[in-house]
Amino acid sequence: xxxxxxxxxxTNGSEFTISPAVGTISSATGIGCTTQFDTDSLHLQLPQxxxxxxxxxxxxxxxxxxxxxxxxxNTIDATEELKFTVLPKAPxxxxxxxxxxxxxxxxxxxxxxxxxxxxIATNGSDFSINGSYPTSIASATPNCTGTTTREVVxxxxxxxxxxxxxxxxxxxxxxxxxxxxxxxxxxxxxRSISFSVKDTVDASFxxxxxxxxxxxxxxYFHAAGNGVNSWxxxxxxxxxxxxxxxxxxxxVFNEKTIQLIVNNGFCTDTSxxxxxxxxxxxADFTTYNDNCPNEPVPFTSTAVGKxxxxxxxxxxxxxxxxxxxxxxxxxxxxETAFTVRYTVTDSFGCQSxxxxxxxxxxxxxxxxxxxxxPNGDGLNDFFHPLNAIKAxxxxxxxxxxxxxxxxxxxxxxxxxxxRQNDKPLGSGSYVWLLSYVDRDTRKRVEQxxxxxxxx
Length: 455
What we know:
By secondary structure, the chain is mainly β. The protein is 0% helix and 42% strand.
C-alpha cells in the first residue's frame, strides 16, 4: 500500500516462504522497478504449479538481512503473512457475450480468465452458430496484446437485421482444439451461449402541409412497425414531440429541417428531411421618389411569393391590376405626396400590402434662380436648383469671386443658406456649377451661372 525500495528486494526470493512447503521461492522481482523507490507490487516465481489447497505466504529476512524497506527505511514486520487458496483447475467457462447491438455482424465473446491467443483458429472454426434464419461464422480474431486475451471477436457471414434467437456453440477448430486457457485447460466443445436480436427500424416519415395566411400547419407521420415504441421529433423553430405522429405550427414561411429518431429498445434509426413552406408572401415595389405631372410614372413590383392577383391604388383615384404598371398624375396646384398602395394575393388566397409615397411636382422645368434673400423670413432663404426631378448623379457647387468653393451638395433639395463655415457672407454675385444625368436621355448635362445674394 506504499512504495518500497527496489534495492531492498532479494531477487532470489529469500525473503518469502510458502507453507505447506512446495520448495523455496525461485525468484522475486519488483514490477516496474526503474529507480530506488518505484514499486508497490512484486512477482514471485514458484518452482512448480501449486496444487489445490490453502496456503500461507510469509515474509522473513532475506539474504540481504532485511525484509522489504520503504522510502523511510522502515521494514515490513517478519510476522506478517498472507493466506490464499488455490482452486482445482477447471476449464474456462464459455458463457458470456458482450452486449449484442442492433444489426450485428460481429459478436464479442468474453472469457472469465485469459485464454491463449494461439488456441484461437482465425478461420472461426472454433465456433458455430444456428438460429431463426441462416448465418455462419466467417472468422475469429482474438484481441491480443500479448500471448493471452479475454476477448475474441467472432465475425458473421451476414448482418442479423431481422428479429430472431441464435445459439453460438464452441467447437474443436481446424487447429485440433477448442479454446485453451492460460493454465492449459481446454474448454470442452459443445458449450453454447444463446442471444436474441430484434428487427432493425426505419425512421423514414411523410408529411402533409396545410397552408394558412398567418400560420402553416404541418402533420408528420411515421408508420411504426418492427416494434418501434419511441419517437423523438425535432420540428424546427424550437418545437419537438414524442408522439408517433406529430403536428407543428409555423409562422415563418421558409425551409424547415425536420429530424426523427425512432427506437424499439434495441435498434435506433434517424431520418432528416427538409420541408419547404412555399407560401411566403410579401408585397413590395419600386418607383421614383419625385415625378413629373402628365408623364407616365413607372411602378415595378418586387413582390415575393406565388402572386396571382396584383392590385394598385395610386392615391389619386387611379388603379391598375398588372404587375408593373405606369400611371400619370394630373398637375397638382402645389407639390403633392400621393400614397401608393400595392396589394398582392397569392394562390392560397392570402394577401400582403405595401404602401409608399411619391411626390408629384407642378412642373419639371429645371431652373436656377438668379437671386435669393437669406434673411430668415421663410421666403427665398435658400439657393438651389428648382424642379430637378429628373436630375440623377447631381452635383451643385457655389464659388466666390476668387474661385473658392464655399458650398457643394448632391441633393438638389438641399440649398445654400448664404453662409460659409456658419458665417454669413456679404451681398454680391457668386458663381454656381450644376452637373447631372438626365433620367430620360441618360446624357450628362453641365450648366453654370451666377446668383446674387441680397442682404
